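Below is one record:
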Amino acid sequence: MTRKRLFDVLKIVISLTLIIVILRSVNIEALWEVVRNANLWYLLAAQGLLLLGVVVRAYRWRILVRDQGVNASLRELTALYFVGFLFNNILPSGFGGDAVKMYELSDRSKRGAEAVSSVLVDRFIGLIALQAIALIALAFSWRLMPTWIVILTVSFFAGSLMVAWVVSYRPLWNALDRWVPLFNRLLSIKPLRSLVTSLQSYSGSALLRAFGVGIVFNVLLIAANVLIGTALGLELPLPYYMIFVPITSLVLVLPISFAGLGVREGAYVFLFTQAGAAPEVALSVSLLVYVLGTVVPGLIGGVIYVLRGARDYGEIKQQEL
């Protein structure tokens, strides 16, 4: 068994273990009762916001792609986003969808470094925008939160800004390239140097516009969580959602589980129960966020993937004729 295959199996084991532990900690009958009595209209509204969010994220990606000189329509990028959700659902890595988006855009544009960097920057900006919303909430409601949540939120935002500065500060990279042999050898690899060059070439205006769109998307994401919570009878002040949703998104970045399963549910239960939610309600919110925000877009992505494959096959046959 290869090391990658071993890690994939380990992620599945971790997800199954966490899910079993979480399910054993809640009342299954109460959990089913919470889901069964959910308000369908609120759930449909949440679904609409989450699907709209996919288009908004694709628009943010288009800003970055065009800044790199890659010509791709919003329709094409939206389709790739949905296809990315499909592979997030079926691949052990939580980044399987990103890899597919990188490959597809690279294959169609013949601009590999730019395609890869656009996906990386798109995801990074999304996380920073989400943490910025959490900071705004903390500014007005930090007394509601445990000290560790305040420290974690502030630290991650500050750390993200530091990472962005390190990646974009060319004099630092030039100095490392000149004085650190290992660094020089790494950057002598042409694809890696091309990727670094692309990461450092985004204009300030493009990054600022992408950040603004990222704020819009994350407002939709938080609003969808509020609607799902409301559908389940969960009544919490808005700041809790504005702070808890960014933390759960941060946890999901960790590549330790299959599609975030188990980790997501554990984070929701741990955080929302501290705010007074019943474990069954917190778990129900998490499961519905997963179904509406990942599974449903993945199903749409599957349809798009099949139709694209059929279209490409038709074009190949026409060329052969």
About this structure: DSSP finds 14 helices and no strands in the chain.
